[in-house]
Amino acid sequence: MKREDLLQEVAVEQAVGLMLAHDLTQILPGRFKGRLFRKGHVIREEDIPALLSIGKEHIYTMRLVDGILHEDEAARRMAEAVRSPQVELTEPHEGKITLKSAIHGLAVIDKARIDAMNALDGIVMSTIRSHTPVKPGQPLIGTRVVPLIIEEERVAEVERIAASSEEPVLQVKPFRPLRAGLITTGSEVFKGRIQDKFGPVVREKLEAFGSEIIEQRFAPDDSSVIIREIQRFLHEDKAELILLTGGMSVDPDDRTPGAIKAAGTDIVSYGTPMLPGSMLLMGYIEGVPIMGLPGCVMHDPFTSFDVLLPRICAGEIIERQDITELGYGGLLGC
Ligand SMILES: Nc1nc2c(c(=O)[nH]1)N[C@H]1C(S)=C(S)[C@@H](COP(=O)(O)OP(=O)(O)OC[C@H]3O[C@@H](n4cnc5c(N)ncnc54)[C@H](O)[C@@H]3O)O[C@H]1N2
Ligand code: MOO
User: Fold this and answer.
1) Which residue of 11, 272, 297, 329 pairs with 304 in a disulfide if CB–CB is 3.0 to 4.6 A?
2) What is d(CA 316, CA 83) in angstroms, rounded to the nearest whole number?
3) Residue 273 CA: which ligand is closest?
């Protein structure tokens, strides 16, 4: 069935009493961009000047047949195909449906399946980046088809791609409240030569995801003290996340990475290919995530810590591959 058979072009002056086949958009630069007429609107005599003013001398009326979908229906099926329970759908608007988060959490989107969908002609599946922290109401995906009507088979292919794995294409993982122990190393802080500036920054970053610092303890640049404090947080306080600050680079007094390793940590990576945040250490000790935070976390607003922390709070296990992938696009400053 050809497009011309399904869509009938009618001059607006002859269209009174006929139904619009799609939303009609008006753009007044700097003032308005939006829907002037809704799909399904029955044209009235008084609409004709408005239609002409947005450049519409003809409109489409439509006859739908089996095997062909209107853009609104196509968008609805595509949105349903990728959604999960933590996601809300808007109504179609100019043929587009937006999927929004229903919760505060981490948006996780399967790039491989999104790429496969967008490789199909006429399919638009536009997403935010995976592993972004999101708030309720925040848009995650906008979807539509490019033509006004489309073969149902194309949309069915999107549905098949979505169903090719059990994991949803789009999910929002809620943040779990973690009880974190913070060990601030550095003899200059321990001995009171300077005031600690790390604690408040780390505390604020954790609280943004609903977690808390149960206690901040101070240690000099002495491995045995640092190891002892790690063990105390692990076994006495049952901390669910252990963070260490300072002493992460190359000076002889930088004892933190060695102490984290000697405490029995399985190191995922010492170093991340991201700037700032290149000297960060990620590991697990008896299954508890443990991180060494370099000095830049104290003063740079966005480092590798800000990428990894929300993932940990959302319950993800960080693997070597996750660290490797931080390099491409990871030069943010420094
Ligand atoms: N030759 C190299 N130099 C540096 C490298 C490197 O690879 N080779 N890496 C750089 C990067 S990246 C970072 S980040 C920094 C800092 O690393 P550290 O984690 O070892 O930081 P520190 O040496 O312990 O301290 C740096 C600076 O910050 C002050 N500080 C530390 N903790 C606190 C605190 N709790 N409150 C206030 N101020 C604090 C400390 O006194 C120092 O002045 O290394 C680069 N250099
Ligand atoms: O670790 Mo530094 O942490 O890249 O500025």
Assistant:
1) 272
2) 20
3) 2
Fold (topology level) of 3-62:
Molybdopterin biosynthesis moea protein, domain 2 (3.90.105)
The H or E element spanning position 213 is strand 212-219
Q: Does the CB atom of residue 69 touch ligand 2 within 6 A?
A: no
8 Å CB contact between 246 and 188: no
Q: Note the pTM of the prediction, 2 decimals.
A: 0.89
Contact in structure between 334 and 281 (CB atoms under 8 Å): no
Of the pLDDT bands very low, low, confident and very high (cuts 50, 70, 90), residue 20 is confident
In angstroms, the CA 170 to CA 175 distance is: 16
What kind and span of H or E run contains 140? strand 139-145
Give the helix/strand (H/E) hosting 283.
Answer: strand 281-285
Q: Which CATH class is domain 68-173?
A: alpha beta
pLDDT digit string (tens) for 197-253? 999 999 999 999 999 999 999 999 999 999 999 999 999 999 999 999 999 998 888
Under CATH, which number does the domain 179-324 receive?
A: 3.40.980.10
Nearest ligand 2 atom, CA 334: 5
